[in-house]
């Protein structure tokens, strides 16, 4: 569940006020810069914010990555130098944004949710990534260190693929593509869990299964909320009339669009399947209850009448003629067995046995 | 549930007839005026309606706030001076409006629901706010004193943020933003309640839980009804072709639009989660019933047959050979124990134990 | 449920054939005329159809109201004089129309459902009203006498409001507004019923409650079918490009549009609430069943085993050593009480008591 | 359920191959022709296909009706003479089409489902009707003899209505109108069945009711599938830019559109009502189960404990002091009656009695 | 469930990298070429990729079919010669595409799912088919040998139908039509299974039925996911502004569109029917449970009280006057029979018997 407590910290402040509402993750703010064109490549790690500015003047593509959003001075400094709108800065720090894209003329502001498995303990990590695409630069803002962009860094350094030959818009595409690609790992994980649950459902369903179905249902609802706006964002990005995205890159964006739709479709299918599993579970419980009731009823309806007969001849009346008959006892046994047999025949006729 | 009794008081009256259909909250009508530009600031509290009129002539931005809607003379007086359409006046007094925005050319009429926690007992208060945005003035009409606008008053007085440097449209933006921001406090509250309910659901669910789930379901349906039109309102406001909203302010409106969508999304997610909780509750009840039935069945199917055997040898027939056997008693015990053991083995085989 | 038997009477007849398919309500057909402009007012009750025609020539606004649709000669006569399309006449008589608006160039044809509480026994009455808006006249066709237009007649006669100063389109607006306003009385009624049902649900739900919930569900489905197209009708009316509606009146139509949306929203909310009540009812039934089963199980599992023990010592074997022990009887009591206590402890541990 | 076996016969054949996939209904193919204008009328029954061709040259309106689709030579012959596209011929023979309208320039091709009650045994008959509207001719293709067009034939022969004064497009309108009108008879039938089921539901619901509810649910799903595309078809027909439909006729098409929407609306309402009935049935079953359980529980919890007490004093211990008390027997009766009374009081307190 | 494990192999690779993510089906890659115009026909089986290139220069229509996608050299070679975009090549190898159509200017890229019954064991086979439509060539890429195109090959060879007279776009149409036509075989299969399940449901429903209903539900969800985008694809194809599709062919594409809608409609109907079957199953289980409970209750409530009476007179009190009455025994029998009769009368009154 989202954490609105942090969100409401901002209540009443003037728009454009920078308040970081996420958790403070890690200590410092780590800025790294990669500047490249098809021939040259410069890379700087853990720099001061001022070291980024010289790159702005040059024609080469600059990628500035900021890990950690809790120091507003750094954002303000970047904002002033790169001419960012105050609302953009506010949104970067407000990590409960819905995925969206906004065109500010001189740059595009894109918010996405990066969802990936923690490399160590493979829990699911959800983090907001803000991406700013300008004329010859891309800025990415993340809540903490660790991301899904390493393969892209690798490609830039090694000059693999066409990233070095293209411009900032293609870099932005690569980054978004990488985020969307990671959704498939998450889907794969759910895939396994659902298969697993289904296998258990077809066996004897334990009570705990119900809570597990509920838990996964809940997670898929959350995932859906993060993923649903993606379609719209990528579609808008593809159709946007802006000089910041070259025609050549649009074909690639269409490709992401296809992936985004596939993710959304799959999540919707999961919802339907999980809801079907819940129904199946309930039906199984119902069936088992039915079977239990059947056994109880069979036992009870066979023995209750004959126990009654035994009770009759357990009475202590002085004048009970049957008691003194020589064949009384075996006759009563005969009656009892006949009654039980009739009952069993009735059950068999009704398909209960 | 809305109170249509009040609504139907108006039935049959000519349009434009002013009838206040809300509860009469508080006694008097309290008018306050703040007039400012980037340099000057005048503030008047609890004024007569006529005292507002001189501000109209001036270029500075005037914010007239009216608390209490039950005196129609005051509305009529304002309406005449500020050239408001009779339908606008009627709508201001009719506090069961759906959130909407209407363009009357010389002014925009905006209706919103202000939802906030009472600072004292933190109950949820829902109040209709009518907002009129004119050339150089903003009017707000509230049902009673107490609102969510204090931080904005503060900002105007202290000159914080850019509100003093901007015009009436920016003030209107600030007011709407402040209303929408408060929805997040309400969502936060529901967030807590839902988490709370979930914890209880995973333990032993009490019967009262059902009523609580129903109550929160009901509240979320109401909330949704208030919040759903918001999206449309803000979207319309952003796209409206009117000279009353400057281009600079539109970027801010887009920001509110994002928030509005987020609120609507979250409310929809809540509905889904609550409905899932209801299902989980029912499934839990079903499971417990199943378990209870199992125990009953185990006990009954073990003891009913052996009680029958005891009944047999309680019969008083004269000629029952077993009665006189020396080993009769222990043999019967043996038969009983064997039967019980067989039953238990059967249950274990069927995974009932 | 609608009465399609009447509808199918028309099957196979050529289009434009006038067949009244409603119930024949009341005896005669009653025509009344009100003709007015800002200065003069003429009113005629129970006139012959020919008496309406002279008004057509004059510039003043004429309102012709027809109660009773079963005489096709009258309709044909009006149709010829006011140049109405044969399909319009057919639709007026076919009282199972869906609410709609049609632009025939020289007039607009509007069909609405008038729903109101019978003033006497306050049952819900649904009646089709056909409204024809021409250059300087409005015609209304109702199935029987009695309607919701009396306040408008009053206003015209007394010159209250602006109706006398405006033209035929404003009169049409007033009539539609009056119909839509009456929906709120119906909603108010359902509001009460739903509140009432909810109170009963939270107490001990009687079986009859189920049928009442079903009945109200059914009524709301019907209401929804009548109300749903309203939105579209009013929206179309507002946007229609026709010289028959003046610009001044459109603002008023927008007002009806808001009301129509509110009605539709409320009906939808009712559906959701009623469906929630049904679920709550079922869950309550389930809960009570659970409790009943618990009591049965507790009683049975405590007494069945100890009754068995009593049965053992009721057996008549000759050689039962315990029988002759001095402490046999109290020891057996001790065993029984211990067993019952263990059972109770088990139930308490499982939160059943 | 549709019969896809026939459909798949066509698999792999080149498009335009004529294969009749419906049942062969009746023996021969029966062609009848009516040719008329406002003055003349010629009618031919059971003609050879070649006899139709001369009419093509004349200005009068020709209606060619073909009953039976299994002879492809006849279709090919008509296709060649009237210049029909191969796909049209293929679609005419493929009787599993979805209702649709296609504009081939020189003619419109319209597919509809004719649903009517068999005049004899009043079963529901569903048949595909293909309608081709050309410049001065209308062709209708039916699967077998018997249709809903007799009143139109009558009208043409007797010159009733305006059909003789209008052209081919008006004839097409009449035919479609007649098909749509017949849907109301079907709806009427369901109306009765639903009312009937509801009456039974409010009484003691038999088990067979469930299967009947399911059966009608199934039929309504099928009906909906046939009726749903109708709306689109008629709407398209009305808006189509083609010289084949005169402006005068379009008003009539709008009328059919209203009927089509009404049919679709009603079918949707039926679905909702039937689904509500299913819920009501289940709730009733649940309620009855509850009542049965209550009775079982009351009987069992009253008698099990006192039977235990009787069992106690049925034991044969030598040393049971109570046995020898003079008042033992009446005191035990007193204890039993007290226990039963307490139980009954408890049940009454919990509203079980 | 789709296999995302393979999908995630691609994560982090630059776009345009060719990685085959499907199963490696079969060993080699088999390329076959058919080149034809209305007069000539050349056919080559199992050729080297280079042998395809000469056909490119000629005006005749060339169909290149590739079975097996795991050798990226072949794709790269084809891509270079036919000027295919890197993303197209990537998509061909990524066999988890959603059906789509993309216009690359000089060619159209179409992805479809081919679903057909394996001719041997009639399991359902789902395979991705990529289709490239160029100026005078069509390329098809399949995952493995075996497809639904044999009838088309036949038609080309024998010159049946118009395929030899038309161009590449008509060939593409034939291929798509053949894929869509095969969906009907699958639907036919589900049709049978659903009819089968329904018959069983109306009899005594076995527990295993539930799992079968779930299994078919699950399959239909998957089928729907494959079929749903089809509508969009074919619709886009029909409306696409490209010189690659001639006007004559568009009429045929409209025909596929009708089929696609029919498939989607039918799948949706299946979903609704299966969901109805699940409900029916549950209701049947509920009904049977009810019946079982009734029998248990009848037996128990009749015998428990009279067994109690028998217990009373089994007590061993010394002073029990009834014991010594001459008529004691028959009177007790009378009481017992009366009680049982009253119970039975009560049950009959409540319609339980």
List keywords for this structure.
14% strand; Methane Monooxygenase Hydroxylase, Chain G, domain 1; 2 domains; 10 helices; 7-stranded mixed β-sheet; alpha+beta; Beta Polymerase, domain 2; 353 residues; rod-shaped; homopentamer
Descriptive report:
Five copies of one chain form a homopentamer. By secondary structure, chain A is an alpha+beta fold. Chain A has two domains: 4-282, 2-Layer Sandwich (Beta Polymerase, domain 2); 290-349, Magnesium transport protein CorA, transmembrane region (Methane Monooxygenase Hydroxylase, Chain G, domain 1, Up-down Bundle), CATH 1.20.58. Helix content of chain A is 55%, strand content 14%. Chain A has a seven-stranded mixed beta sheet, with helices on both faces. In chain A, α6 packs parallel to α8 (247-312) and α8 runs antiparallel to α10. Chains A and E meet through α5, α6 and α8 of A and α1, α7, α8, α9 and α10 of E.
A few lines on this structure:
Chain A is an alpha+beta fold. Chain A contains 10 helices and 7 strands. Chain A folds into 2 domains: 4-282, Beta Polymerase, domain 2 (2-Layer Sandwich); 290-349, Methane Monooxygenase Hydroxylase, Chain G, domain 1.
CATH class of the largest domain in chain A: Alpha Beta
Give the total of beta strands of chain A: 7
Our count of domains of chain A comes out at: 2
Average the pLDDT over all residues of chain A and give the rounded result.
Answer: 84
Span of the ends, CA to CA of chain A: 49 Å
Rg result of chain A:
35 Å
The low-pLDDT segments of chain A are: none
Specify the overall morphology of chain A.
rod-shaped
CATH superfamily of the largest domain in chain A: CorA soluble domain-like
Oligomeric organization of the protein chains: homopentamer
> Largest chain interface and its two residue counts?
A-B, 68 and 65 residues
CATH second-level architecture of the largest domain in chain A: 2-Layer Sandwich
